[in-house]
Specification:
- The complex is a heterodimer of chains A (388) and B (209).
- Chain A is an alpha/beta fold.
- Helix content of chain A is 34%, strand content 16%.
- In chain A, strands 1-4-8-5-11-12-13-14 form an eight-stranded mixed β-sheet, with helices on both faces. In chain A, strands 2-3 form a two-stranded antiparallel sheet. Chain A has a two-stranded parallel sheet with strand order 6-7.
- Chain A is globular and about 65 Å long.
- Helices cover 33% and strands 24% of the residues of chain B.
- The longest helix of chain B is centred in the middle third of the chain and has 11 residues, at 109-119.
- Classes of the chains: A alpha/beta (388), B alpha/beta (209).
- Chains A and B meet through helix 10, strand 14 and helix 11 of A and helix 4 and strand 3 of B.
Chain lengths: 388, 209
């Protein structure tokens, strides 16, 4: 979930290079799960690689909480901003753009270009702000399917994502079973636990109780609820890392020579969290944070079937790769195993791996060789299926 | 014990490259069956069952390398520890549950056999025959046996529960498992004269009574 991580490292050999985001406008209303509609909307997206003449090599990459359509490569004017999954997508990378036509799309409700709370509501002429409708994973998938229609893609070779992105990939298999060949779902869960929702609620409370939030309509006031965003990000960040990872990265190291007997950022971990929080509050929108955490809370495909995930996944036709990480306590391996079990009962093909990586939930963005080799091997097989 | 007779000709023709015990296992699996292969390794048996028997096969493996190999072959495989990983499967999920060359390395031998008979209609196990005459000779000479089917020294062997065919049959009876097939093999062929001493590999098929 860390958009910033890529910015630190240099462009690897095998990068897709300079990329240019595009925008697609939709004038037919998008009816949402809540019953509300977006009368019109725009989606930002990027593509890498070349669509085959048979149009059968497209892979959709769905983003998680704080990422965007900028999956791989860099922008000409901001070369330091590498795509959030640049280590995964590119020529010679696990999702190889020499073979696949990869699409990254920004979801409605986001703050990175697609229609969201910062966009102008056509019915009022002012930013949506707090009135932007609550969107769900299912709504995002419907919007993504419309983009696929416009791009002339009837069926994705694969839909892929990590965390919340993987929920979208899962939802694709249920909502559009005929339009997805493979579902690649990393570090995910079939539903949030009470603990997950609780963390989200603490983050939302931090934002909503910031005096600069103004009930979500802070744009007109010329302020940003940065303090709330900062706390929200700090909380989130703790849940992305494992206890061991934090111990190894920071331990009890002090930035000062000794205790200063005050409340400054004396411990390294405090300094790190403050830095992450500050940076995040500079570029992320508070209303978007509320919306996306709500989409996480609401995702529960089994809900319509009295909690029976087997029934929920019954329509799925895709083949699956699921990966979880042993130290991920946010979306623990046991949650992914529930999905695997439901797939086996439904007679669906599945590869499931539990990677023994120390980095907690964040591991899905890192390039652990066991993880990346498996994704590469899986996509090798997807590619051979196309040609064979 | 009808399966103790010669290996069916079609099994030999269909799978010339399979290990001896795997050929016998494949011969006992019906076309289109739903199969769980525990400790499936690189997926050799699964690929054969899928391609020659149209079986719907799932493997369970602990090793990263094996998961990778199975993924590359387009096989379904689940990374889990056999001694706890079967809990995820509902009762009678599979037609056949296979445990080849792994029983002797299990710590919870009884629990694994019970779980096999819970999730499958029938189970198949294969294991090296500890009672092979060369092993007995080795013991008479004062040394733990080391042989092609058990190629380990006593201090580095993963085989913690070695047994003979007779031992297995006694345990099966105690667990309420009815043995429906037995093949005692040497050099890929069934051994009919003194099989308990002369067979190197035992393959059993069983059902819950």
């Amino acid at each position: 979930m860390d958009l910033s991580r890529g910015r630190l490292s240099a462009v690897q050999p095998g990068s897709v290079g300079v990329v240019t985001p595009q925008t697609m406008r939709f004038d037919e209303p998008l009816v949402l799960s809540s019953g509300a509609s977006l009368v019109n909307y725009e989606l930002c997206y990027e593509t890498y690689g070349t669509l085959s003449s048979a149009r059968d090599n497209a892979v959709l990459v769905c983003h998680a909480l704080n990422a965007s359509h900028h999956v791989a490569g860099r922008y000409a004017d901001r070369p330091e901003q590498l795509g959030w999954w640049d280590n995964m997508v590119g020529p010679g990378k696990p999702l190889d753009t020499r073979r696949f036509f990869v699409i990254g799309v920004n979801n409605p409700g986001s703050c990175f270009g697609s229609t969201g709370p910062m966009s102008v509501d056509p019915s009022t002429g002012r930013p949506y702000g707090a009135s932007f409708p609550v969107v769900t994973v299912e709504d995002w998938v419907r919007a993504q399917a419309r983009l696929a229609d416009r791009l002339g893609i009837d069926r994705f070779a694969a839909v892929m994502g990590g965390s919340l992105g993987a929920m979208q990939a899962l939802s694709w298999t249920i909502q559009f079973p005929q339009r997805i060949g493979h579902c690649v779902a990393i570090a995910t869960t079939p539903r949030l636990s009470a603990q997950n929702i609780a963390f989200n609620e603490v983050a939302r409370t931090a934002i909503r109780s910031d005096p600069d939030f103004h009930g979500g309509d802070y744009y007109a006031k010329g302020v940003v609820p940065k303090r709330g965003l900062r706390v929200a990000r700090m909380i989130g960040h703790i849940t992305y890392l494992s206890d061991d990872d934090m111990a190894e990265k920071f331990g009890r190291s002090l930035r000062t020579a000794d205790y200063a007997f005050g409340f400054g950022a004396e411990f390294e971990v405090e300094s790190y969290l403050r830095y992450q929080g500050d940076k995040f509050s500079e570029y992320f929108d508070a209303n978007t944070y509320l919306l996306i955490t709500r989409a996480l809370d609401y995702f529960d495909p089994a809900r319509a079937f009295n909690g029976d995930l087997v029934q929920a996944l019954a329509p799925a036709q895709a083949r699956f790769l699921l990966v979880s990480f042993k130290t991920d306590w946010r979306f623990a391996p046991a949650r992914a195993r529930e999905i695997v079990e439901a797939l086996v009962v439904n007679d669906r093909q599945v590869v499931y791996a539990e990677i023994d990586a120390p980095h907690g939930h964040d591991a899905f963005l890192l390039d652990d060789p066991r993880y990346h080799r498996l994704v590469a091997a899986y996509f090798d097989n997807v590619a051979s299926e196309r040609t064979g | 014990m009808s399966a103790q007779a010669a290996l069916p000709a079609d099994a030999r023709a269909a799978a010339p490259l399979l290990r001896d015990d795997l050929r016998q296992i494949a011969a006992w699996i019906e076309d289109g069956a739903r199969v769980l292969d525990l400790g499936c390794g690189d997926g050799t048996l699964m690929a054969d069952l899928r391609d020659s028997r149209y079986a719907r096969v799932y493997g369970v493996e602990i090793s990263d390398e094996s998961i990778l190999a199975c993924a590359r072959r387009g096989l379904s495989v689940i990374q889990a520890d056999l001694e706890s990983g079967l809990r995820m499967f509902p009762d009678r999920m599979f037609d056949t549950v296979v445990l080849s060359q792994t029983l002797q390395a299990m710590h919870q031998t009884e629990a694994v056999l019970r779980e096999m008979s819970r999730v499958g209609r029938q189970g198949i196990v294969s294991f090296p025959n500890f009672g092979h005459w060369t092993h007995l000779l080795s013991l008479l000479g004062g040394r733990m046996p080391v042989s092609p089917q058990m190629p380990y020294q006593w201090y580095d062997t993963p085989n913690v529960h070695l047994c003979t065919p007779k031992d297995f049959e006694i345990l099966a009876a105690r667990l309420g498992l009815a043995i429906t097939g037995r093949a005692l093999l040497a050099a890929g062929q069934p051994v009919s004269f003194l099989p308990n001493l002369r067979s190197k590999m035992a393959v059993y098929r069983f059902e819950t009574k």
